[in-house]
Design goal:
alpha+beta; 6-stranded mixed beta sheet; FAD/NAD(P)-binding domain; 26% strand
Length: 407
């Protein structure tokens, strides 16, 4: 019977691993297949918002993140033109509404590593590296998945469902002919990490910061270093349109970028640098028969506000809560249509809308509009009622509630 076939997950990134844990806890068999030979040390996403921490707490993961990461209840908006702190938001104001009134800075590769450390010895935790999902064939009661192994051989695997957690260029999504609707920004972004403690330069720097500037805005976040390394400060800034990756990652160019923000005579010690293209896209549907999408396979967005990973984890938890009972025969396939309705709305009405607005806020060039935007941000931060409302939306608390309310 189809229900005896395992669920196949394409990918073994953070969304796939959270999904795997959520299925494991329900006793639902799965096999996760990852094309890389080992977990990827990806420096992109690190911020886990309050509802995400709560979800991960329900899976037994939050305590490890909190212990090994950085708790950040406060975040600040800065005007880089005049060096003022425009606004400060304190999630502690929401302490009577959420169990974890703070963000946890914990990179996504650490979350993957922790899941494998905690569950890797469980015989039912089936995660395989160096195995790539290349295609599938869908039938009424199962899917047949084509897999390419490290030695180049091809095998077929039967599953009850196939879930694409294989990133923004998702093979699963493309093979399912699911449209990916949206746009790509003309400029690329560069992320530069440095070990230099920026609080020594300016004690107004919080763990999470947003700098407004008409030419070169910035996300500036701190993350916990590895056990033998100091903490890392991560700059995300826009590149010039047409600027190549080699130009952006040139040593002098990176030093100049950092010194424009925080001038100093000595060079900064660079921990890493990554360049990436940024898009705002959402799949037309997150389910098509026995094919499902979650995380970047279903939606991508700019990193301002730290919403991409959070939305992906929300997908995983929502999907597992429906797919487990469907696999067991306790719910019908229509529950997966509800998954799309709920998470598609969360992606479009909240994550996409908020991240696009965040970018516009930081990069506004018109002096009058820019002043109005910053004045409004300041006024909002100084009014506890409005500040709470803003944080509920910015931290995806409203997103989760709105999605869950959809029937």
């Amino acid at each position: 019977m189809a229900k005896k076939d395992p669920i196949i997950i394409s990918g073994a990134g953070p969304v796939a691993m959270v999904l795997a844990v959520a299925l494991l806890r329900q006793g639902v068999p799965f096999i996760a297949l990852e094309k890389l030979t080992e977990p990827f040390v990806d420096q992109r996403a690190a911020s886990h918002h309050p509802p995400t921490v709560e979800m991960l707490d329900n899976l037994g993961l939050a305590k490890h993140m909190i212990n090994e990461g950085l708790k950040s209840p406060v975040y600040r908006f800065h005007d880089r033109v005049n060096h003022d702190v425009i606004a400060e938001f304190d999630l502690g104001l929401l302490a009577d509404e959420v169990p974890f009134p703070f963000v946890v800075q914990y990179e996504q590769y650490k979350l993957v590593r922790k899941v494998i450390e905690l569950f890797g010895n469980n015989a039912d935790f089936n995660v395989h590296f160096a195995r790539t999902v290349t295609d599938f064939f869908q039938y009424d009661d199962h899917v047949m998945v084509e897999i390419k192994n490290a030695d180049g051989s091809i095998e077929k695997m039967r599953g009850s469902f196939l879930i694409g957690c294989d990133g923004g260029r998702s093979t699963v999504r493309k093979a399912a002919n699911i449209a990916f609707e949206g746009f790509t920004y003309p400029e690329k972004f560069i992320k530069i990490g440095t070990y230099f403690d920026l609080t020594a330069f300016d004690n107004r720097i919080a763990i999470r910061n947003y700098f407004s500037h008409p030419e070169e805005w910035c996300n500036l976040f701190r993350v916990k270093g590895e056990p033998d390394k100091p903490d890392i400060w991560r700059f995300v800034v826009p590149m010039r349109v047409g600027e190549s990756e080699d130009e952006a990652k040139d040593s002098d160019a990176m030093q100049n970028r950092l010194k424009r923000f925080f001038p100093r005579n000595e060079d900064y010690e660079i921990a890493y640098a990554n360049v990436y293209t940024v898009s705002q896209c959402v799949a037309s549907t997150f389910n098509s028969g026995r094919i499902l999408l979650a995380g970047d396979s279903a939606h991508v967005n700019n990193p301002i506000g730290g919403m991409g990973l959070n939305g992906g984890i929300h997908d995983a938890v929502n999907l597992a809560g429906k797919l487990g009972p469907v696999w067991k025969g306790e719910l019908g396939m229509e529950a997966l249509d509800l998954y799309t309705r709920q998470r598609h709305k969360a992606s479009t009405d909240f994550t996409q809308a908020q991240t696009i607005a965040n970018k516009k806020q930081l990069e506004e060039r018109d002096p009058k509009k820019r002043k109005l935007r910053l004045d409004e941000m300041r006024a909002m931060s100084e009014d506890p009622i409005r500040a709470k409302a803003y944080m509920r939306r910015a931290q995806l608390i409203d997103s989760v509630k709105a999605a869950d309310a959809i029937a």
